[in-house]
Target: DUF1285 domain-containing protein
Amino acid sequence: MSDPGKAGDLLAQIPQGKAKGLPPVHLWNPDFCGDIDMRIARDGSWFYMGTPIGRKPMVKLFSSIIRRDGDDYFLVTPVEKVGIRVDDAPFVAVGLRVAGEGEAQVLHFTTSVEDEVTADAEHPLRVELDAQTQEPAPYVHVRANLEALIHRNVFYQLVELAVPREMDGRTWLGVWSAGVFFPIAPQPE
Model:
């Protein structure tokens, strides 16, 4: 499935219309057609056959049909399902808008493909620590089992908004959004 025309064939199968919103990829169950040589790098760059996809509208279109099943990522149309590689997360949160403050604060993220997501109970924030370096890797849930890696500059904004809160017998630094407290890291003693 690594022929150069495969990405174009896949694009031709994506339903086009005037309706807003994302295609219902969660409802589509076509046969698996194999893997294609497409990769999403950790920085959110998309590659096809080792070459960057420079056309943003094409990247946005592909990003609208991505689905994660278990640990695997696929591009899905009503008639075809192909596997792709994702180095970390399929999206990168590159912008943050803050409304309100304190427990009434609401955090609105924008991804590199212009998806917008509000951190809340259905779209939680989480932070993983690298076992070797102890460097944090923050994520926000975007949709249906898909996350965005939060860009370093946006994470710095979150850290500046962090407040302490007692949880499970410890004091955590974290942020509020839509009435939910999201821990970032234990408060240093």
About this structure: The chain has a mean pLDDT of 91. The first strand starts at residue 32 and ends at 40. The two ends are 54 Å apart (CA to CA). The helical segments are 6-13, 56-63, 152-161.
